[in-house]
Amino acid sequence: MGRKVEFSAKQRGEIAVAVKSAKSKEEYQRALCLCLRAGEGLAARQIAQMLGMSFGGVRNIHSRYLKHGESILTNVSIGGRLHANMSREEEKDFLAPFEKAAADSGILVVSDIHKAYERRVGYKVPASTVYRLLARQGWRKVAPRQSHPKTDVKAQEAFKKTSQGNCVNSKRWTKNR
């Protein structure tokens, strides 16, 4: 078992204020979890049973409070780009020279961006990382429509001109009898 850390009077005051000013269930539960430990001296298992939390969750709250202080008492969004290599602004700056080159030539070569990206972050990344980066920055893949190599455009145009009125009931549907 770990050593039991005593809370100072200042910390107990912070916790008491947090219990009274909690704006959500999660904030209240975190503050109450700390209050039961600091004020009553209860063990983590007892607090977990009283509050309907897991033992590990209670220990996590206690540990985070001792490490980070009262900042953990308010709701802070944990989500987001936790494993991002660059911020969105850095990504935009990174793509600026490629954007200029693409404007001049009309073509953007992803393999060049991929190599430059790996040099910038200092390690290998999958190609999907670069494609997601481009999508995040508003780029999209524009490719010409595929056509058959033996397509005869003149024959298609001739067919369009001659086939307009040749279909019976081409504009409406009728019921088969």
Describe the structure.
This protein has 177 residues and is mainly alpha-helical. Among the domains are: 9-73; 88-136, no CATH class. The protein is 56% helix and 0% strand. It has helices at residues 9-20, 25-40, 44-51, 55-68, 88-105, 110-121, 127-136, 153-162. Helix 1 (9-20) packs antiparallel against helix 2 and helix 2 (25-40) runs antiparallel to helix 3. It is elongated. The N and C termini lie far apart (87 Å).
- Please trace the helix and strand order, writing H or E for each element: HHHHHHHH
| DSSP summary, beta strand count | 0
End-to-end Cα distance, whole Å, is: 87 Å
Helix count equals 8
Key features?
single chain; mainly alpha; 177 residues
SSE layout:
Blueprint: H1 9-20, H2 25-40, H3 44-51, H4 55-68, H5 88-105, H6 110-121, H7 127-136, H8 153-162
Helix pairs in contact: 1-2, 2-3, 2-4, 3-4
Summarize the structure.
With 177 residues, the protein is mainly α. Helices cover 56% and strands 0% of the residues. α2 packs across α4.
